[in-house]
Amino acid sequence: MLLKRFMRQSKNYFDSTIWADPLIAEKIVDSIKNKSERIYKRDGKRVSMMEVCGTHTMAIAKSGIRALIGDYVNLISGPGCPVCVTSQGDIDRIIEFSKFKDVIITTFGDMIKVKGSSGKDLSEIRVSGGDVRVVYSPLDAVKIAEETPDKNIVFVGVGFETTAPTVAAAVKTAKKNNVNNFFVAPLFKLVPPALDFLLSSKLCEIDAFILPGHVSVIIGKNAYDFIEKKYQIPSVISGFEPLDILRTVDLILEAVFDRTDFIGLEYSRAVSDEGNRVAIDILAEVFAPSDAYWRAVGVIRKSGYVFSKDYEKFDAFKKYGIKYVEKPEPKGCACGRILLGMAKPSECSLFGKLCTPENAVGPCMVSSEGACAAWYRYGVKK
After folding, report:
1. Are 323 and 330 in contact (CB under 8 A)?
2. What angle do CA 103, 104, 110 make, to 5 degrees?
3. Are 154 and 105 in contact (CB under 8 A)?
4. Residues paired with 292 in a beta bridge
5. Mean pLDDT in each 10-residue stretch from start to end of the chain (382 residues)?
6. What is the CATH number of the domain that holds 295?
7. What CA–CA distance (Å, rounded) separates 260 from 254?
8. Which of 239, 265, 291 marks a domain boundary?
């Protein structure tokens, strides 16, 4: 039954017979169970793997991988959702822009329902008359700026290394075309410093990482070398098909069984060792690494971006003098602990009761990449 569900989801993900081959899936599952059981008998513990990509979180939940691979692998959802890791103080800073009558706030859809510490979100502000617009690309926001010269357009810059290059390109376009009423609230997050923090803090047990595919297309495999050199644990960059993820889990278990550490590349059809040089160069031109606030963590050094000197006039926070003020997490919400791998969604007292997608308390239930949203939508129990 579980395998049928898995293969049904595989067909939905990718129109190719190899990705929906039940015999391949069955062989990999058997291998995973065999290796994980042998490791458990030898070491007396389950192997804990953390995925740090929201798309992986959704794919794992949708295809039923947790139930399929047996009891001896512990899959943990980490800080892979950019909306979820945005701190409460930064959410409030975004909402602060709505107080300025000359501002149009533009944002991707997931941000519009994340509540600030006042209990309001951008969707409520829009209903009450605020000019908040959902866009599908930062270039859409540049276009709005060109068409609305009497207003200042603020684009909410939330995302990892995958999103940041597209925003950087939009900023360069605005500069080239002399669009002087386009601004960005830079709230980007960088994945490698977050992984370094998780491993050094030892807040939860992590034996390996299932590394993000989209981010790795940009930054490349070599960006994770520190995991092997500094922490001596295996990690593998994975694609997003359910078979990709199964292969990744199997590769990690092989390394754990052999007591070897390496950075593997399962997603070789899209990721190179060096990454996307064009994207990396545009990031280096427009942005500079900076300390950043993460939900439930506080500051992680050099884990975000600010504008470089040549582009700092595009910084919306500086334009309007909006400073950061630390704010507490929503009462009773375990989103922060979930992001750190210290709890699972089902362990939150609000999950599925007071906190649902229709009435979300925390961002992990709001975002389409949030762990709580994935567990709720696909009925994951543990």
Report:
1. no
2. 130
3. yes
4. 300
5. 49 50 89 97 97 95 93 95 96 97 96 92 95 97 98 97 97 98 98 97 95 98 97 96 94 96 95 97 98 94 98 98 94 94 95 93 93 95 78
6. 3.40.50.11740
7. 9
8. 265
